[in-house]
């Protein structure tokens, strides 16, 4: 494919699609962008400005099936007829990260996982930047990787990568891969088979060699079982908060110890900017990536202390009448909410609900018994939440708008307690997306 530039068709005119179009045009492809939905005006303007051909509201089959190469946006399932036809015709269908990686020689830190990947990506980027590396951050966060490659010349990239993006790779290979954890999520895209989703996450290491690294959570049984059954070639660098491990990172007496190539670093968790056990793990993963890229120990220690977390992830909004309001709108699955409840140290009024992705709330039961004094449901269908926790929590209220939910929480919460928005569900029943939900929460709290 190198050298022979042909027709590049981009399916989906969102962030990754338009990024791919920009890079494709720069690399001399004849680019056509096709979106069955509506392309946002801001993206349309970019395409028009660059004189890239596009359509929305339809897929022109003849034109698409004439492609030499197709980049499919991660939101489009492999099962749609258009994609199936392309595959049957033998036209390569790849993801944006696969396309973009062909046009850079940068060192890549690739981060995937069901939860924690955004925080770990931001944290790793922060550590590397503070360590003086010329580093960019892309993928599922901020600008698309393709756009970054087209417009910058970074030596290193930290990429947040979803399973959908990994499904479309062929030769993409991060020098350092991180798997934060694997819990059931998006199973509707994987024939409702958890093992298909796990296999998809592990594609991050499929092209790695003995000179590359895989950082992973050794406390995650799903990951350790998979590695036993499907060994990878890369060097394994595990982390744990339950047991001592070397090489790798472990937690003991509030201290993180990292050992790589017989070189040891110790850091106190007391000074970490982010709270909660899951953030100790995120800090371990990011710190090991930084250590492998030769960032000084002192820089890593300092940088962990001044890191500002990801928006909508356990974000402290305001304290009103000595009640802390926390926005964890990014918790779109049960596992993420588990971490949020686990890090609460006081009685909590919990706002939960939304579009359920087949949730099993049973895992949350011990935490809810111990920490939750009231549940405020915020969704169009709250029956499952009410059935699960109705006998455990004395006070349950159903609400249908963010403003209403926050007003009810304000009445219920007493001094020294916390109001936590951690929905454990997708947001599409009442909101545009989790950001919209989090922003509405923050606005409602500020109006109190």
Automatic annotation (TrEMBL):
Its main location: cytoplasm. Its EC number is 6.3.2.9. Keywords: ATP-binding, Cell cycle, Cell division, Cell shape, Cell wall biogenesis/degradation, Cytoplasm, Ligase, Nucleotide-binding, Peptidoglycan synthesis. It catalyses: UDP-N-acetyl-alpha-D-muramoyl-L-alanine + D-glutamate + ATP = UDP-N-acetyl-alpha-D-muramoyl-L-alanyl-D-glutamate + ADP + phosphate + H(+). One of its GO terms (molecular function) is UDP-N-acetylmuramoylalanine-D-glutamate ligase activity. Coiled coil: none annotated. It is an enzyme of class 6 (ligase). Residues 312-425 form the Mur ligase C-terminal domain. It is found in: Cytoplasm. Residues 111-290 form the Mur ligase central domain. It comes from the Bacteria. ATP binds at residues 113-119. SUPFAM superfamilies: MurCD N-terminal domain, MurD-like peptide ligases, catalytic domain, MurD-like peptide ligases, peptide-binding domain. Pathway: Cell wall biogenesis; peptidoglycan biosynthesis. It holds the Pfam family Mur_ligase_M. Belongs to the MurCDEF family. PANTHER family: UDP-N-ACETYLMURAMOYLALANINE--D-GLUTAMATE LIGASE. NCBIfam families: murD (TIGR01087). Cell wall formation. Catalyzes the addition of glutamate to the nucleotide precursor UDP-N-acetylmuramoyl-L-alanine (UMA). This is UDP-N-acetylmuramoylalanine--D-glutamate ligase.
């Amino acid at each position: 494919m190198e050298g022979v530039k042909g027709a590049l068709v981009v399916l989906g005119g969102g962030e990754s699609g338009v990024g791919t179009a920009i890079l494709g045009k720069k690399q001399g492809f004849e680019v056509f962008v096709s979106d069955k939905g509506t392309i946002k005006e801001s993206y349309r303007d970019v395409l028009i400005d660059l004189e890239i051909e596009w359509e929305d509201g339809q897929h022109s089959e003849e034109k698409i099936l004439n492609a030499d190469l197709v980049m499919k946006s991660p939101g489009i399932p492999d099962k749609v007829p258009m994609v199936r036809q392309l595959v049957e015709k033998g036209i390569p269908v790849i993801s944006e990260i696969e396309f973009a990686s062909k046009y850079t020689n940068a060192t890549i830190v690739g981060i995937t996982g069901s939860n924690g990947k955004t925080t770990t990506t931001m944290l790793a980027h922060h550590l590397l930047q503070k360590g003086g590396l010329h580093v960019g951050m892309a993928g599922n966060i901020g600008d698309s990787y393709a756009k970054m490659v087209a417009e910058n010349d970074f030596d290193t990239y930290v990429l947040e990568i979803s399973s959908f993006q990994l499904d479309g790779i062929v030769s993409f290979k991060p020098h350092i891969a991180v798997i934060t954890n694997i819990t059931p999520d998006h199973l509707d895209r994987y024939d409702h088979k958890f093992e298909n989703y796990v296999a998809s996450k592990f594609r991050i290491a499929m092209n790695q060699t003995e000179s590359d690294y895989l950082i992973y959570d050794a406390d995650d049984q799903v990951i350790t079982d998979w590695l036993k059954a499907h060994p990878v070639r890369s060097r394994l660098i595990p982390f744990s908060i339950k047991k001592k491990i070397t090489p790798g990172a472990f937690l003991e007496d509030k201290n993180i110890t990292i050992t790589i190539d017989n070189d040891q670093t110790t850091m106190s968790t007391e000074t970490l900017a982010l709270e909660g056990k899951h953030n100790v793990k995120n800090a371990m993963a990011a710190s090991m990536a930084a250590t492998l890229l030769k960032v000084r120990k002192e820089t890593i220690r300092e940088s962990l202390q001044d890191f500002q977390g990801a928006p909508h992830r356990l974000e402290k909004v305001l304290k009103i009448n000595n009640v802390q309001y926390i926005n964890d709108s990014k918790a779109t699955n049960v596992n993420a909410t588990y971490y949020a409840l686990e890090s609460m140290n006081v009685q909590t009024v919990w706002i939960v609900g939304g579009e359920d992705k087949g949730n099993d709330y049973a895992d949350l039961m011990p935490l809810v018994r111990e920490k939750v004094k009231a549940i405020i449901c915020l969704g169009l269908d709250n029956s499952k939440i009410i059935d699960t926790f109705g006998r455990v929590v004395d006070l349950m209220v159903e609400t249908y708008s963010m403003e209403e939910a926050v007003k009810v929480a304000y009445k219920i919460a007493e001094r020294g307690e916390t109001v936590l928005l951690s929905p454990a569900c997708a947001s599409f029943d009442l909101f545009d997306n989790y950001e919209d939900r989090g922003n509405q929460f923050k606005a409602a709290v500020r109006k109190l």
